[in-house]
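Supplementary notes (optional reading)

For those who missed the lab, this is the record we used. Protein: ATP-binding cassette domain-containing protein. Length: 244 residues.
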Amino acid sequence: MDTDTILSFEHVNAGYGRVQILNDLSFEMKRGEVYGVIGPNGCGKTTMFNALIGLIIPTKGKIAYDGHDVTKTNAAARCKLGIGRTYQVPRPFEGMSVFENVLVASVHGAGHSEKDGRRVALEALKLTELYEKREIRAGELTLLDRKRLEIARALGTEPKLLLLDEVAAGLTEAEVQDVMKMVANLKAAGYSIIWIEHVIQTMVESTDTLMCMSEGHNLLVGEPLEVMNSKLVEEVYLGVEEDE
Ligand SMILES: Nc1ncnc2c1ncn2[C@@H]1O[C@H](COP(=O)(O)OP(=O)(O)OP(=O)(O)O)[C@@H](O)[C@H]1O
């Protein structure tokens, strides 16, 4: 793995029990880039995240992250190495304040002392523009702010690689623009970001590299607009969307 590469999947097979979902998946991501992942429903995008954070262990192949072979490393150790994820459906502790939610991630997720955890949590809240709302109960937040909180909680673990799972889903166009600005700020702050999304325009405008997955493998990867305009992608992805 060259030092520019933060993440690589090499011929990975993985799934749930006997059901194999990832099927010889290979790709490589550069440090500091926003790497988009698209593909039809059920093609294995979230499963790829699950394999990346250590929720499921590959039956074949290798996952290398930041100079480490993490193929069989457990989830807690990967979190400590700097892999932080968000979930498709935000699930904060509703009764806790915004700040407390991020503090919990920082202290219990990343193992920071309370003092360091507070510092990291406040930085995460500033980066996600939630600082002014830090005392509000998480259950009272709008969907956009819940998405921000989901990202802040991931940042609370001090990741180098941030995994975003459909953070734009369910938002208005104006809100999606806010998310795109936030992702651009996170990139500028030095995070490497891997971003699953169905909102195609977002992917074209906000990512440096785009991969389209199909049936658990890498169908096409490249410059976002080229990937989106390719016939191959149109057939497996847009074709499926239109039929739904
Ligand atoms: N815990 C699980 N146990 C068994 N099968 C699962 C589990 N989670 C997901 N699957 C199956 O794995 C396949 C891939 O799902 P996955 O969520 O990775 O797809 P996806 O590309 O993220 O889809 P979407 O765009 O709809 O979120 C689907 O057929 C799904 O039903």
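If you only remember one thing from this example: The chain has a mean pLDDT of 91.
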